[in-house]
Amino acid sequence: MDSATSDRATLSSTADNGLKIVVVGGFGVGKTTMVRSVSEIRPLNTEETMTRAGEAVDDLDGVHAKTSTTVAFDFGRITLDERSVLYLFGAPGQERFWFLWDRLFSGTLGAVVLVDTRRLADSWYAIDRLEHHGTPFIVACNDFGGPLHSEQQIREALDLSDDVPLVECDARDRSSSKYVLITLVEHLAALSAARLQAAETTAPAAAVPTAALAAAGPTPEPAP
Q1: Threshold 0.85, pTM exceeds
Q2: To bridge 74 with a disulfide, which of 15, 35, 127, 201 should be the other Cys (CB 3.0-4.6 Å)?
Q3: Which residues contact 22 (CB under 8 A, 6 or more apart)?
Q4: Quick check: 28 and 93 in contact, CB under 8 A?
């Protein structure tokens, strides 16, 4: 199996706080694209060329132009500051790879559920598994130029509660992908603060430095 290897970008010796975020969603929603667009290193990916043998098991409705697919996971990295590093994992979308998800969720700070509004039902399983694991998440609608839906329509179709952030994005665009991650981090910080308040503790809420994420590293060279 071929895979692209990451650049040897220097990681500070003081980095001792590794934070893990997973990008999940249905088949062909742009998970690899998002990790690739926002990573400060050339992302590791495990893409394989799609063949006719997969036509019987992969639903290509709406993604007929797709020629490759992730068969294990994608991996990228963003340095937040001298001590904190964000690790991004993109999960494969096809049903036959769902058994990998539980392992990828282990130790996860939070998740981005990436959806294609033309195929909202493809994201139901991702949301169900995250809720099963108790993993906080936000939902990001990737722009594929499909029909417009109101926020309420999307929330109803995905059965999202009002406290789950819902944003729009273009996974190809670095700044747009960073905005999605910042939204997730702010959501996690708000949940942490709410838990602390409920526990009537005076300890400060732990939060990922969102300002550092917004200013994180230059755009890497595109993967071959």
Answers
A1: no
A2: 35
A3: 88, 89, 90, 91, 104, 105, 108, 111, 112, 135
A4: yes
Predicted local distance difference test score (pLDDT) of residue 96 = 64
Q: What is the mean pLDDT of the chain?
A: 78
User: Which two structure tokens, joined as six digits, stand for 18?
Assistant: 């590794």
Min mean pLDDT across 36-40, 66-70, 129-133, 166-170 is at 66-70
Tokens of 144: 């594929």
Which pLDDT belongs to residue 221? 54
Distances (CA, A) of 183 to 28, 121, 138, 189: 22, 23, 8, 10
The first and second tokens of residue 105, run together, are: 């969720």
